[in-house]
UniProtKB/TrEMBL annotation:
Membership in a protein family: Belongs to the TonB-dependent receptor family.
GO biological process, one term: siderophore transmembrane transport
UniProt-annotated location(s): Cell outer membrane
Gene3D superfamilies, sorted: Carboxypeptidase-like, regulatory domain (2.60.40.1120), TonB-dependent receptor, beta-barrel domain (2.40.170.20), TonB-dependent receptor, plug domain (2.170.130.10)
GO molecular function, one term: siderophore uptake transmembrane transporter activity
Membrane topology: Multi-pass membrane protein
Top-level taxon of origin: Bacteria
Pfam families, sorted: CarbopepD_reg_2 (PF13715), Plug (PF07715), TonB_dep_Rec_b-barrel (PF00593)
Membrane in keyword set: yes
Gene Ontology cellular-component terms listed: cell outer membrane
TonB-dependent receptor-like beta-barrel domain mapped to chain residues: 438-903
Name of the molecule in the record: TonB-dependent receptor
Length: 932
């Protein structure tokens, strides 16, 4: 059996832990933290021993206890959001430690790691970066911390359902964003078969998230190919620092005044327990469960592409409703026109009762005060409704993750695996089509096999319309449809439910079920040489290096990939180096980095980045950067091989089409029409078929379609971040990017014979293949040769008002320029030109009482996606108002929170074909860090 890529790493860590040093004599340090002005206890403050991993947090009474095996004296580093950082010297363990922290208006004096992979002040980050700290997460007015990310500037959030929200930055948004990286404690939480993260469905619970950092724009130079448009880094709570029992119960209601259904209950429960032993061994356990009634997709707009606008609607014989499935099957009947089958509305096909279950735990062992071994396990399972090329019910889908890590003060080595299982997932559109093939009768009233159902339905329709059926009105579309639909299973009937249940279990083209059991194995490491350089007298120089190896193991049992004979395996690796130098008395910092990545199916790519930050004072910081990025095609882009009858969808990896002679021997599909029309005209004029072929064959156009390759971007960014008069925080940013090699689909015709003859011209035999239907149609994955540009600007302002009020606002402008590119070759920008957020809050409006309000508005724009065959659908301008009020009971370590997402209950559509989303009103009770 082949050894997994990180098996050696796992064995190494086990040996290190088993052979770790014995627990040394422990010393206990205890104390109390209070607000210097109000003298009230400070809950949640962080206390670390300087230059060690050892640390803890203060409980609800402001008290803390930590143990160490290092001899005194000690220096404690005490930090809390909104307060000045303080160093406290402790001479002996018996000394009472009382720390009073002063309120700081310089809230932006916060530490981030996402921008450079090393700790740095957020003011001096080389690129635009956003952060939600622990307090912001607790006080978000949104129903979950993940929804609260939408209030950060530059963020686009698209809601496909109650359990599935997708975020993006810098344009080209989608409901399945393959251009954006999402990490949890360094783990890529995407199901590898999807090629993108499913929101926070397989992520953290609100109780266990410590902070969130967002990097808008390409971060490939440090994080690799997936961080093409940005990266989101989520950090969970360390069990050494955040100990005790925490529990949360949240109950709410949605679907208020929803015309599709009555109001429905929403439940969200979470439990976390963490415990440390002698500052040597710690563990944590998390359980989270949410369930509710999803939003209904009920847009029945007629989107048939060939019907004039004034003729569209339910009475259109070719009616194709956006959220109606089965009516995509159509025929153009001589003398009648275009006719579509009768479909089923989505609400009768999918399951809107959704849930999310998250189970995870971690074991931390400190081998030495500066060397820690970690093992973590995560299992998530849930149901969501997702809008992609179709509407999918991700039903009971699970993601299993194992992580092992060895972490020191200057390095880490990490290995993890992601294992997905689609379980009962299905395609709602395919389900509607397949149910429609189970009941069709022939002209004698006998039910025909499914593979004959569509043709027979149109035969019945034609006979009825032409007056060949007794008792049916001639030339009446309504009557013809009624006759063709005789025996149709109605939604809610026993027959309909029986066939729906049966077809959901059939995976592949004959049913609606989806099978994916893809795995991903990943190993990465990083080392910071700064300490060694400082010891060598180079204290102003920082050098960081790292690399990773990743293996994909694809398996769909032939339902999506050509993998009936076994799993498809492929590898990729990358390595980076970053160097920084501080100059001009530390007022100027220059940083350069470069990364090389190689996927076994593509050429290697080098992605450099350079930045400078000029800080004339601590409060004013100017930045500029040049960045490059790239994105590898997803597993589906590379290896899909799906014969759907009239067309075969074929991924662009060379090995995927080996021996098929498709990319090399294809005809441009639009040129076929000109050839056929010319041939028919010549035959009607009296020419022989052979003469007609020779006269018109050169109207066919041969294609040399390129195999798929990674997308690329180059961008330039300038910005300023600072604090004015210790009251007004400002963050301004402008970026300009140029994109190339966009991944797209191209439809081609492959004849049985070579397209070109020995003379280099169109082969008459290939032209004859077109007339004799001796050809196959393919949808190929390839790249556009066009270059396009995107630019934008963001401005964020936060004002700290005396009395504890914080008023914030941010705005984003985004623009896309096709230049001279073919608009059919460019994926959708899907981004409003303008959007803005305004927040107002005060955590101490009265004793133990706080509130927060967030208002979001965005402009209208055209959404283009594969669900509607890349035809634009208008997303109207909308606004959302979130609000919460929190009352804290410190003596009980409890907080009561009442709030609402979309308080005004505006039903808004955020992606064309997705449901209209209304308000969610909730009340939660949170008990935090008891039993410490």
């Amino acid at each position: 059996m082949k050894q997994k890529p990180f098996t050696f790493l796992y064995s190494l860590l086990v040996l290190i832990v088993l052979n770790g040093t014995a627990i040394a004599q422990q010393t206990r340090l205890s104390g109390t933290l209070t607000d210097a002005d109000t003298k009230t206890p400070l809950s949640g403050a962080s206390i670390l021993i300087k230059d060690q991993l050892t640390g803890t947090t203060a409980d609800a009474a402001g008290q803390f206890t930590l143990t160490t095996n290092r001899r005194g004296p000690w220096t404690l580093v005490v930090t809390m959001v909104g307060y000045e950082r303080q160093l406290v010297s402790v001479a002996n363990a018996g000394q009472p430690i009382a720390v009073s922290l002063k309120v700081s208006t310089q809230v932006l004096q916060d530490v981030v790691v996402a921008a450079s992979r090393v700790e740095e002040n957020i003011l001096k980050a080389p690129v635009s970066i956003e952060k939600m700290d622990n307090r912001a997460i607790r006080e978000t007015p949104s129903a979950t911390f993940y929804e609260g990310i939408n209030n950060l500037k530059g963020v686009d959030m698209v809601t496909s359902g109650l359990t599935y929200k997708q975020i993006n930055t810098r344009g080209f948004a989608s409901t399945g964003n393959t251009r954006f990286l999402q990490l949890i404690d360094g783990i890529d939480n995407q199901p590898a078969g999807f090629g993108f993260s499913v929101g926070n469905m397989f992520g953290l619970s609100d109780l266990d998230v410590e902070s969130v950092e967002l990097v808008p724009g390409s971060a490939s130079a440090l994080y690799g190919p997936t961080a093409f448009n940005g990266a989101l880094l989520m950090h969970s709570k360390d069990p050494f620092q955040f100990q005790g029992l925490s529990a949360q119960a949240k109950v709410g209601v949605n679907h208020v005044n929803d015309p599709n259904t009555g109001a429905a209950l929403y439940h969200d429960y979470a439990l976390r327990y963490a415990k440390a032993f002698n500052n040597k061994l710690a563990f944590k356990l998390n359980v989270a469960y949410m369930k509710g009634l999803d939003w209904f997709a009920t847009d029945y707009t007629d989107v048939d592409a060939t019907t004039p606008a004034e003729q569209k609607g339910r009475n259109n014989p070719a009616y194709n409703g956006l959220n109606v499935y089965g009516d995509e099957v159509n025929r153009t009947i001589t003398g009648i026109g275009k006719v579509a089958r009768t479909g089923y509305e989505e609400r009768y096909l999918t399951d809107y009762n959704v849930y999310s279950l998250k189970l995870n735990g971690a074991l931390h062992y400190r081998i030495t005060p500066n060397l820690e071994a970690i093992y973590s396990y995560s299992y998530s399972k849930g149901t969501a409704n997702y809008t992609g090329s179709n509407r999918f019910s991700v039903n009971g889908f699970s993601l299993l993750q194992h992580r092992i890590e060895l972490r020191g003060a200057n390095f880490f080595v990490r290995g993890y695996t992601n294992q997905e299982d689609s379980h009962d997932s299905f395609n709602s559109r395919s389900l509607g089509q397949q149910v429609g093939r189970t009941w069709v009768r022939d002209l004698n009233g006998a039910v025909v096999p499914a593979n004959q159902a569509d043709e027979m339905w149109f035969t019945r329709y034609t006979a009825a319309f032409q007056g060949k059926v007794q008792g049916v009105t001639t030339a009446d579309h309504t009557a013809a449809r009624r006759f063709a639909d005789q025996g149709r299973y109605l939604p809610g009937s026993a027959e309909f439910d029986r066939e729906k249940a049966r077809l959901k279990k059939i995976q592949g083209l004959n049913g609606a079920g989806i099978l994916s059991q893809t795995k991903m194995y990943h190993v990465d490491a990083q080392y910071n040489f700064s300490s060694a350089l400082e010891a060598a007298g180079l204290s102003k120089t920082e050098v960081l290096a790292g690399g990773n190896f990743r293996q994909f193991s694809l398996f769909t049992n032939g339902t999506l990939f050509d993998d009936k004979g076994g799993r498809i395996l492929y590898n990729e690796f990358g390595a980076f180096v970053q160097a920084s130098q501080r100059l001009l008395a530390d007022k100027l910092k220059l940083t350069v980095s470069g990364r090389y990545d190689k996927n076994q199916n593509f050429a290697g790519y080098f992605t450099p980045r350079a930045s400078l930050v000029f800080s004339p004072t601590e409060a004013h910081n100017f930045r500029a950067s040049f960045q490059t990025g790239f994105r590898n095609p997803t597993p589906s882009d590379q290896f899909i091989k799906l014969n759907v009858g009239p067309i075969t969808i074929l991924g662009g990896a060379p090995a995927n089409s080996a021996g098929m002679n498709v990319y090399e021997n294809s005809i441009n599909s639009p040129s076929v029409g000109g050839f056929v029309n010319g041939f028919l005209a010549d035959v009607q004029a009296g020419k022989t078929p052979q003469q007609a072929v020779m006269n018109n064959k050169d109207k066919l156009q041969k294609l040399n379609v390129a195999y798929i390759k990674p997308e690329k971007v180059q961008s330039f960014e300038v910005g300023y971040r600072g604090l004015i008069n210790n009251r007004l925080a400002v963050d301004a940013n402008y970026y300009f990017g140029e994109y190339q090699n966009f991944i797209l689909n191209q439809v081609v015709i492959r004849p049985d014979n070579p397209v070109l003859g020995s003379d280099g011209k169109i082969n008459p035999a290939a032209a004859q293949d077109i007339l004799n239907t001796k050809y196959q149609v393919f949808q190929l994955y390839t790249n556009a040769t066009d270059r396009v540009t995107a630019q934008g600007a963001t401005l964020g302002l936060t004002y700290y008002v005396p009395g504890g009020f914080t008023i914030g606002g941010n705005g984003t402008w985004s623009a896309f320029n096709l230049k001279g590119a073919n608009p059919n070759n460019i994926p959708a920008f899907n981004t409003p030109k303008y959007k803005t957020n305004v927040t107002v809050g005060n955590r101490n409006l009265a004793k133990n009482l706080g509130f927060n309000v967030a208002w979001h508005w965005q402009d209208s724009f055209d959404w283009v996606g594969s669900f509607n065959d890349l035809r634009p659908g208008k997303i109207q301008a909308y606004h959302l108002l979130d609000a919460q009020v929190t009352y804290r009971v410190p003596s009980l370590k409890t907080a009561l929170k009442m709030g609402a997402s979309n308080l005004t209950n505006q039903y808004v559509v955020q992606a064309y074909g997705s449901p209209a989303v209304g308000g969610l009103y909730y009340i939660s009770l949170t008990f935090d860090q008891g039993m410490r």
